[in-house]
Amino acid sequence: MTIRELGKCEDPTIIRGWFRLVENTIAKYGIRSDDIWNFNETGFMMGMIEPGTVVTSSHRQGRPKQVQPGNREWITVIEAINAEGQSIPPFIIGAGKDHLATWYEECDLPGDWVIALSENGWPNNNLGLEWLKHFDRATAKRTNSRYRLLILDGHESHHSVEFEGYCKENKIITLCMPAHASHLLQPLDVGCFGPLKKAYGREIEHLIRCFITHITKTEFFPAFHTARQAAITESNIKGATDSNASRRGHNTIDPLDCKDPKDSARGPVAL
Fold this sequence. Notes:
The chain is α/β, with parallel strands linked by helices. It has nine helices and eight strands. The chain has helices at 3-9, 12-29, 101-105, 125-139, 161-169, 182-185, 187-209, 217-231, 234-248; strands spanning 36-45, 48-50, 53-54, 74-82, 91-95, 114-118, 148-152, 172-176. Helix 5 (161-169) links the parallel strand 7 and strand 8 (172-176). It is globular and about 55 Å long. The relative contact order is 0.20.
């Protein structure tokens, strides 16, 4: 991100405008706080404890060597949380083409987690739609409002025709955060992903002490499971969403701003 982009995303006018849009959308569609969901994704290099420290494939004991490449395979984890401290099961995207039986037989993962594959471990339009269906399954029965609000980033996979069509059919309103502002506005970035990365690092350090020096998906999944239990907690989620809500609370609702969603390029999808 350039200095100009950073300055723009922290522009108070943009931030106030975002919170105003959120409040107006909530008011227009009568959405309860427990039906407002923040979506975000984060990435893991499986052999990375922290930036600059890589688990190597060497069998030598001692601290991992920063100069040697470990397993830098990328994993994307998609999470969604609400202000009541709730989360839905994670949607995990790994690099590859084939699922291995050992992931399901040996890793002891919850049955409602989703493991998907793409060529490079990144989301794409098809996986974006599959995540949306996963979100719908996880939240439809607990919904208390007529509509659900889903707050997204600007990734293209969240703006495909199929994605927006599914939202319309299932009464899911979407709002897209201002570009490059998730570090300020996204509760998952603010209060959850940091603890998650630290907890994952601790799990990998434990594996190193057990002389497991090359991390594959078979090691990643249980390590991530333990880290997630420690980090994606009700208290962490509420702390992050409360911080966001306190900033949003300084904005007032103007009924005149409750315009039709199609009038705003990045406003809510009309349902």
